[in-house]
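Hi support team,

I submitted a single chain yesterday and got back a structure, but I'm not sure I'm reading the token output correctly. Could someone confirm the output below corresponds to the sequence I sent? I've pasted both exactly as they appear in my results page.

Thanks,
R.
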Amino acid sequence: MPLRPTPDAMRERAFAVLADRVSDARFLDLYAGTGAVGLEALSRGARSAVFVDHHRAAARLVRANSASLDLEETRVRLIVRPALRAVHELAKDGSSFDIVWADPPFESWREGLEALIAAFTAGLLAQEALACLECPAKAEVEDLLPSDLEIVRDLAGGASRVVMVRSAGA
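Hi R., thanks for writing in. Yes, this is the structure output for that exact sequence:
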């Protein structure tokens, strides 16, 4: 399972934009990998983070990294499932998130976008919530978004970009 962690500079830029939204937020980290993005959210005051990755090796990394930070168990939840399946299960549970971050393998960035769109459709996102997709710099995300979603920020940097999306009119 090759990991491509979000570069530190990109994570810093994204969290600078998210700024005050992170404090007390319920954060969903899809395709969590090492858990660095969700852990960053927790370190910046997020109320809780749910980490989703279908690779058991990634799940072990998230557990180890969470444990090393001595986080309260009530703030961290780990789901070992494919992202789309986890989104539907979380929606059935009545879960709600303020920020969703999806960082799928670059060759399957469309799958990550599909998971974010499903999160909006399933009512998994709180009003005013933001969804962030990390994808290749040349990914044509705009052409695949439904009309009820809009891009509010697009952070490009090197080979990747983070596209921030919300419900249109939110």
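A quick pointer for reading it: Helices lie at 8-18, 36-43, 56-68, 83-92, 109-121. Let us know if anything else looks off.

Best,
Support desk
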